[in-house]
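Chapter summary example: a protein plus acetyl coenzyme *A.
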Amino acid sequence: MYQIMINDTTLRDGEQAAGVAFNLEEKVAIAQFLDTIGVHELEVGIPAMGEEEIRAIVAIRNLDLQAKLLGWNRAVLSDIKASIACGLQRVHIAIPVSGVQIAAKFHGQWRVSLQRLKDCISFALDEGLWVSVGGEDSSRADENFLQDVALLSQEWGASRFRFCDTVGVLDPFSTHIKVQRLVSTLSIPIEIHTHNDFGLATANALAGIKAGAMSVNTTVNGLGERAGNAALEEVIMALKCIYGVDLEIKTQHLLKLSQLVARASGANVQPWKAIVGENTFAHESGIHAHGVLQNPITYEPFSPEDVGWERRLVIGKHSGRHSLSNLLEQHGIFLDSQETQAILDIVRQQSILKKRSLTTEELLNLVSEKRYSHAT
Ligand SMILES: CC(=O)SCCNC(=O)CCNC(=O)[C@H](O)C(C)(C)COP(=O)(O)OP(=O)(O)OC[C@H]1O[C@@H](n2cnc3c(N)ncnc32)[C@H](O)[C@@H]1OP(=O)(O)O
Ligand SMILES: O=C(O)CCC(=O)C(=O)O
C-alpha cells in the first residue's frame, strides 16, 4: 500500500465536541505529543475564531514541529487572512457540497459558493500557501456535483481534496464506492474525514483508505462533533494489525496521549473503548483468563505493551479456578480444589453485592477469614 498520511484534527474537530475548550497550554501539549509520536500532519484550529485561537496556533507554530500544520477556514477571505496572521503555510478551505448545506449557507446559490471557493483558493495561492479543499457533506451530495467541485478545486490549484462524511451516514461499502470514484478521476490525493453517528467512523475511514484515500483525519479518543470522529489510536492500530501497514508511529505512547486528551477535554474514555479503554487488556472471565495464562494471544489481538498498557487478570463474578489460583499463588497461598471453589462462590456473591470485581486486598482478606472460620 502507498504511504498513508495521518492528518489529526483533535485540535480542530476534536475540540468542536460540545463543551470542550482547550487552553493554550493544552493545545500546545497535545500538538507536541502528536508530533513526538510521529503523526504527519495536524489540523491545529480555526484562526477565524479570533485572538485566543490565533495565540495558540502561533505558539504551536513556534515549536517548529516535524508535523505539517494546517489551519481550517471557510471559503471566506478574512478566514484565510487570519490563517496567514498565524504564520501558517497550509490552509484548508471548506465548502458545502450537498443541497441541504448549500441551501442553509448560500441560499441555494451554488454558483456563488463556487466563486467564493475559487477566489479563496486564488488568494491563498497568491500568498504562497499550500491549499486543501474540503467538500462538506460530500456523502449526501449529488455525486456529479461533488465530482465537479473536486475537479474544479484541482483545476484552481488545490493540492488535496477532503471527502467528508459530515453527519456520519455512510457505511464502509458506500464509502468505498464514493471515495473510489473520486480517486479514479482526480490526480490530487483524497483525504477521508468520517463521523461516528452510527459507530462506523473508524470502519469508514479504513474503507476510504482501501479505496485509495492517501490521507485520513483522526482525533484522539475519537473526540469530535456529536458522536465524534475516527479515533487516531483505532485507525493506526487497525492499519498496523489488520492491514499490515505500519505508519512508523510510536504506538507505545497511545495510552498516555489518550489520557492527556481525556484530561484536557474533560471527556473520560469509556472502559471498553478500543485500544485505550481501561478494560482493553483486563480479563475476568474464567475461560478467557485460563486461555491468557496459557498464551495471551488466545484473547488479545496484540500485546498491551504495543500501546502502553499492562495486562490485568481481574477476579470477579465470572472468574474461574485457574485465574484465582494464579493470583493467590503469587501471594504464597496454595489452596486445594475444594477451597478454591469455596472462595470462588464467595467472590461471585460479593461481586454481585458490590457490583464490581474484588481488589487483591479484599481477596486476600477473604481467604484468611475463610481459613480462620475453618479453624474455629
Ligand atoms: C462540519 C464542520 O465541522 S464545519 C466547522 C465548524 N466549526 C465551527 O463552527 C467552530 C468555530 N466557529 C466559529 O468560531 C464561528 O462559527 C465563526 C468565527 C467561524 C463564524 O462566526 P459568526 O460570524 O458568528 O457566524 P456563525 O457561526 O453564526 O454562522 C456561520 C456563518 O458562516 C457561513 N459559512 C458556513 N460554512 C461556510 C463555508 N464553508 N464557507 C463560507 N461560509 C460559510 C454561514 O453561512 C454563516 O454565514 P453568515 O454569518 O453570513 O450567515
Ligand atoms: O473540512 C471540511 O470541509 C469539513 C470538515 C468537517 O468537520 C466535516 O465535514 O465534518
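Key point: The mean pLDDT is 97.
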